Amino acid sequence: MRTLHFKYTEQQEQIFFESNARFNVVTKGRRFGATQGGIQFLIEEAIEGKANLWGDTINSNIDRYFERYCKPALVKSKINFNFNSQQKKLTFPFCDGFIDFRSADRPENWEGFGYHNIFLNEAGIILKNDYLYTNAVLPMLMDFSNSRLFAIGVPKGKMNKSDKEHKFYTLYLNALNKQKGYRLLQYTSYDNIFLSNDDIEELEREIGNMNPQMVQQEIYGKFVDESFNALWQPEMIRKVDALPALKRVVLGVDPTASKDGDKVGIIGAGLGYDGNAYVFHDTTGNYTPAQWGTIVYNSGKEIQADCIVAEKNQGGEMVEYVIRQYDPITRIILVHAIKGKELRAEPIVSLYEQSKVFHTGNMWALENEMLTWIPGQGGSPNRIDAMVYALIELMLKPLTEYRDMNLTTSSRRL
């Protein structure tokens, strides 16, 4: 019996309350919006005394999701709770129900207890780990006859990297074939009532520019035959809600010669006193040289950039000239991209793998490019190029094989 009155979308009601199926398989497009509904559902189940598990991709997401989705719902409903940030466990003083939070990047922490409900956020990522599903998730469903699994996510291929069938795809096939105990729900990005069709269409265009075949997977939530080997994987992109103190700020620019050409990549990033980089500003777009010169100036002023790093392959002197028409002060570093885009990006991918780069604010367009760009395929990754130039300057300087510096008069904005 439900004891709270959280608000759910029609799709969330379908997922969580219209069936008692043991295995609930939900394929979706990107930005569909399942996280808030999932956490509200588990809270309701917990205060009714049930044991629940929230499975996520990376450990750093757990505290972030708790603060963004879980805590506000509890506070608004005036529910007394305790959250142990070390154990990643949410409990309530008035009942025995609880929610354990676990991440796929720390599989050793998936305890072998039984749960009434298991919610796998981004199942396409979590279930790449065949061992985790077989030896942790499945046994957790055995203790209670009414246990339920909610595997929800964007499909990430039919096969995993070891050429075994992806467990999310296995669950999908079982549900598609109406195997007993399985239920299949399918949604696209357009089913998110909180996003306009214009927003989704823009996202679809961005993905199509990078890799047209990936549109079916990322927007329409379909399993596709091809395995997409993007340099960045979703679990590598870590986010924080606020910028820390920064000791350097750089604006990366990937210019173009005309408005009808590729987009001008304009990405701002900073180096924190903690030694990590933070990507937080994006004004990329289709501009004429006069337009992007103004936008580069305004962006640099807004983020207090101490230098502008710009590719000079698209007419080196012209690039500096355009910027100098609007910004006579900020130091300019002109980069000669003598290596291919993939080779330039690989050191930055490594920094992401080591959790040394974080995103802040609305960076979804950049993140979309990172997750859909396949080297050698599709359009030019303008945002990626601009970000790479900024992060090399912040984190990997000097890398003479990646850059050819042309320094002009500099003055750090205070």
Which of globular, elongated, flat, extended, rod-shaped describes the shape? Answer: globular
Q: Which class of the largest domain in CATH terms?
A: Alpha Beta
Termini gap: 58 Å
How many β-strand stretches? 15
Range of helix content = 25-40%
Poorly predicted spans: 399-414
| Percent range for β-strand residues | 15-25%
Structural class based on helices, strands and sheet pairing: alpha/beta
Largest sheet: 8 strands, mixed
Number of domains: 2
Q: Radius of gyration from the CA trace?
A: 23 Å
In short, what is this structure?
With 414 residues, this protein is of the alpha/beta class. The protein contains 13 helices and 15 strands.
List its salient traits:
414 residues, Rossmann fold, Nucleotidyltransferase, domain 5, 2 domains, seven-stranded mixed β-sheet, 13 helices, disordered C terminus
Helices and strands, with pairings:
Layout: H1 10-17, E1 23-27, H2 35-47, E2 51-56, H3 59-76, E3 82-84, E4 89-91, E5 98-103, E6 117-121, H4 123-126, H5 130-140, E7 148-153, H6 167-176, E8 182-186, H7 197-210, H8 214-218, E9 238-240, E10 246-254, E11 265-272, E12 277-282, H9 289-303, E13 307-311, H10 316-326, E14 331-335, H11 341-353, E15 357-360, H12 364-372, H13 382-396
Parallel strand pairs: 1-7, 1-8, 2-5, 2-6, 6-7, 9-15, 10-13, 12-15, 13-14
Antiparallel strand pairs: 3-4, 4-5, 10-11, 11-12
